[in-house]
Amino acid sequence: MSRTLARPYARAAFEVAQAGNRLEPWEQFLASLSRILAHSMVSRILAHPRMDQSERVEIVTLALGKGLDPEEHNFILLLVQHDRLTVVADIATEYQILKMRAQSMIECLLTTAVPLDEQARQTWITRLAARFNRNVHLLCRTDPELLGGAELRVGDHVWDASIRGQIDRLSRLLTARI
C-alpha cells in the first residue's frame, strides 16, 4: 500500500529533477531524507500531536543539515501537508526505479554459491545487457546453500539454475508421483 502512495510523489520528484537535470542530487536528497526519517528519535518527535506542520518542516530541514534548494524545501512541505513522511523510503525506491528506466538501466540480482571474479561478473553483465537490451546494474551476492549454479532476479522474474533449485524441483516431482 505504501508503494502505491509513494508513486505519485516519486514521479513528481523525478519530473522536477529531470527538468532541472539534477537526477543524482535528487536521488541523494531522497536517500538522506529517508535515512533521517528512519531514525526512531526523529520519527517520535515528528509524530508528536502538538507539533504543527511548519515545525515538522523545520525539524526535517534542520535534520538534513544542508541548504535545500526551493524545490527540495517545497517537496518536504508537500510531504508534511499530506502526511506522507512515513512513505519517504518507498518514494526513494520508486524514484530509483524511474531514474533507472530513464537511463535504460535494469537492476539484476545474481546469487551464486561462490563469489564471482571480475571476469565472470563482466561476462554476466555483457550477456544480460544483450538479453535485455539495456545497461545492467548487477548486484552480486553469495549463498553457499545454492550448492552450485546461480539464481537471477530481474524485477519480479526469477530464473533459478542452481543445484539447490534443481534438487527442489526433482523432489517435488517425485513427491507428486507418490
- Computed structural class: alpha+beta
CATH superfamily of the largest domain: N-terminal domain of the delta subunit of the F1F0-ATP synthase
Morphology? elongated
Q: What CATH first level of the largest domain would be assigned?
A: Mainly Alpha
Number of strands: 4
- CATH topology of the largest domain, what is it called? Peroxidase, domain 1
Unreliably modeled segments? none
Fraction of residues in β-strands: 5-15%
Largest sheet data: 4 strands, mixed
What is the CA–CA distance across the termini?
A: 41 Å
Number of helices: 8
Helix content: 55-70%
What is the N-to-C succession of helices and strands?
A: HHHHHHEHEEEH
Average pLDDT across residues?
A: 91
Q: What's the gyration radius in Å?
A: 21 Å
Count of discrete domains: 2
For the largest beta sheet, what order do the strands appear in spatially?
A: 2-1-3-4
The CATH architecture name of the largest domain reads Orthogonal Bundle
